[in-house]
Amino acid sequence: MSKMVINGERVAAQDGRTLDVLSPVDGEVFETLPRGQAADVDLAVRAARDALGGEWGRLSALERGRLLLRLGEKVLAHHEELSRIESRDTGKPISTARADITVLARYFEFYGGAADKVHGQTIPFQQNYSVQLVREPLGVTAHIIPWNYPAQMFGRSVAPALAMGNAAVVKPAEDACLSILRVAELALEVGFPPGALNIVTGLGEEAGAALSRHPGINFITFTGSNEVGVLIQQAAAVNAVKCVLELGGKSAHIVFDDARAELAIPAIVKGIVHNTGQTCTAGSRLLVQKGIYPRFMEALAQEFSKVRAGTPDMDLTCGPVVNRAQFERVNRYIAKGLADGMKVVAEGRIADGVPSGGYFVKPTLFSAASHDSDLFTQEIFGPVLVSVPFEDEAEAIRLANATDYGLLGAVWTENGGRQQRVARGIQCGQVYINGFGAGGGVELPFGGVKKSGHGREKGFIALEEMSTTKTIIQYYGA
Ligand code: NAI
Ligand code: MG
């Protein structure tokens, strides 16, 4: 059985209860996890608080940074082991898992290097006054992590928090805890003091809800569904703590008639099938200018029909989706598209020989979606791409903005003025021009607008989100 990590120790839930871990590849149980409850969360929050008042809180920024750098190196030293754990737990093709673990290490490298480079300010004020603006940690930070990129999201959320001197309590998703638990053990091995980083496993509505409501936390980061995002924000309101929410997206590619199709097509396919479409930043809508629509869709269909789903070891483009609920959700959307009369222009294939109990879905490309259909406006979170033609720039921007979400966008055109106008016209947190890098870019500020959430992660901006300022005003005259 796997163990949680609380106060530097590997522990079971206090009441001894466990959860089964099912393989997405065949639906069989292969591991058990502690089913943490409010009492376990409470222990972890206290351990974090004690760490802030103890050894962890006394470390300098340089020393914290060095610990993070060491953890990054340790992750690389265990790269294959962690990749295997991640791939087994989530069903990711092994290459995808390897790429994720590389990014995990990169988060510790980036924020380890940044820890001692966050400076305060002095502010000119009245005569004989000195005013300093100093950065301070928030305190105990709570991190509720989703299952789609567990290792990466753990790094994205926890590395800047630790760099700024917070103590973290992490609740991974019940479907994807194993790589995070292993990294927390590695953190102890490289010398993180007890309580600086705690992991409580369990169900969202139990351990997750208990953590978000705990009066001892000072901040919450959450990535996941809109429904739970609302609950997190309500819990944060009760304790008057800040939260950063990343609640998914329905990001659009906008392809103009002068776009370089040979660049756009592979990026569009990868942008929706990578990680089996379970990516908040997936390019899940495709808007193509009318004049090239038939020709472009034909070329795209050719590329899309090469997509294959298989087991992690087959290492094809897609794996299974993470669990039965997700399997049913994606298939429900595909069925809805068909029932609504939408046309399938290409399908990928599920490889021969995959286990029958696995959660494999057929990658599907739909054309001519109606603008208000569920498939066009809702997050599916699977390898399903919907496309529509558009007339001109104004219509493209209007359609791109015609969902509640606002996470990413992409514009494909050689026209410089149009690149800039469209990039500025799309309501979202990140826009690519002639490229698409869903999820990539540890250095690049990232987050949403509208119902995709608020707050920013990645880059230096995360260090600001995960700290606060104090203004010290000193009179030194007469
Ligand atoms: P979810 O929002 O329920 O799960 C995300 C995390 O929140 C998990 O760690 C879960 O344990 C935790 N959680 C669940 N209920 C909670 C509660 N009451 N209080 C505190 N924490 C709680 O997402 P779910 O149900 O697994 O997936 C449903 C849909 O959400 C997906 O199909 C997808 O559309 C979206 N989603 C988006 C993600 C993103 O990257 N933006 C990631 C995961 C899901
Ligand atoms: Mg849920």
Largest sheet: 7 strands, mixed
Name of the CATH architecture of the largest domain: 3-Layer(aba) Sandwich
**Widest sheet: strand ordering:** 15-17-18-13-12-19-20
- Look at the structure and give the CATH class of the largest domain: Alpha Beta
Helical coverage, percent range: 25-40%
Strand content: 15-25%
Bound molecules: 1,4-dihydronicotinamide adenine dinucleotide, magnesium ion
- Tell the overall outline: globular
- CATH fold-level topology of the largest domain: Aldehyde Dehydrogenase, Chain A, domain 1
Distance N to C terminus: 68 Å
Structurally, how many domains make up the residues? 2
The structural class is alpha/beta
CATH homologous superfamily assignment of the largest domain? Aldehyde Dehydrogenase, Chain A, domain 1
Poorly predicted runs:
none
Active site: 246
Organism: Bordetella genomosp. 13
Protein name: Aldehyde dehydrogenase
Keywords: Oxidoreductase
Task: Walk me through this protein's architecture.
By secondary structure, the chain is of the alpha/beta class. Helix content is 40%, strand content 22%. The protein has a 7-stranded mixed beta sheet with strand order 15-17-18-13-12-19-20, with helices on both faces. Strand 5 and strand 6 form a beta hairpin. Helix 3 runs antiparallel to helix 5. The mean pLDDT is 97. The structure holds 1,4-dihydronicotinamide adenine dinucleotide and magnesium ion (MG). Magnesium ion binds next to loops.
